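Q: My labmate handed me this sequence with no annotations at all. I'd like to see what the chain might look like in three dimensions before we decide whether it's worth expressing. Could you predict it?
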Amino acid sequence: MLQTTIKQLAKANLADNIAIRRHLHAHPELSYQEVETAHFVQTTLLSYGIPSVPMANTGVVAHIEGANPQSRTIALRADLDALPIQEANQIPYRSKHDGVMHACGHDVHTTCLLGAAKILHQTRLQWQGTVKLIFQPGEEKNPGGASLMMAAGVLQNPAPQGIVALHVHPGLPTGQLSFRSGTVMASADELYITISSKGGHAAAPHLTTDTIVVAAHLIIALQQIVSRNNDPFNPTVLSIASIQGGHTTNVLPSEVKLMGTLRCMNEAWRATAHQLIAKQVSELCAAMGATAHLHIDKGYPTVNNDGPLTQRATTLAEQFVGAELVSETEKRMGAEDFGYYAQQIPACFFRLGTMNKERGLTSGVHTPTFNIDEDAIETGVGMMAWLGACLPV
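A: Here is what I predict for the chain of 393 residues:
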């Protein structure tokens, strides 16, 4: 039985896959700089008997053909890049690169896809269709490696009928999985605002325009775009995360810079919010005697999980690990460039539990102490292989 074989291989290969994960964790590379990581992926795939090709500079694509390879194609995706974070964990496989760390689990994602690839290749006569393996760069940084891979033709030749990815979940116990249909993650846009006037003496504010006061009013006004223009049942976050202006006590600065983020769960509202932000910035600053420049760096779209594909994946997960270990994942205002794939083909983005309270493995992603219970790799490898063999039909 294929499911039994996959489970046995995932267990038998766990030690090797942990070694792969530890190598990747110790050698992280930032977005679009994943040269050695991509080389390692290609070398590892080749050792399994799977040829691959580079794509979008530091991405890697490979195919595994089962019986009747033209009958269907499913894509499995992992991301390769790390974050600009100094690791605080004191572990043997601690990052060897100062200021760079796999703090979001992409080392785990890559390991799970490599492990699944090995199993799928070994069992290729037991399932039908083609599995496309996508190892993409730059998930953590605009414009997003997914968009670059798509521009390079990753969803062509052959064109997959669906795409699947997993993501570590440090709030979910090891051995558990979670799925959700519909919108599961937010879009992400970066806001850059510069407020300008001629500046002047702080003791004579009437002779200039106080850009600090303008900035204060603007910050409050921007919050009201969410609280007074958006449907309360439509999740939205607008946060100003940086204020830069002034350098002493008695000078009103000629320039104040604001930076922030806009997160939305609805693409139509996202477009409206952009218009409202532009109007508020321009008109409020002008009314207070300042000029303003706004740049919205449009980032990743929402992640929308296809209903039928996600339901099928959930059923397969219940078969694989047991229904008691499968739950509905929560919505998140975080963003993922997997949303680009989901705009083009049916997609399923699910969560892999990696938490182990007894071992003290509870830190969240994007923190210097993030780490996982490596027993979760067995589940992740097996589940990706099982989905690759069975989806989308």
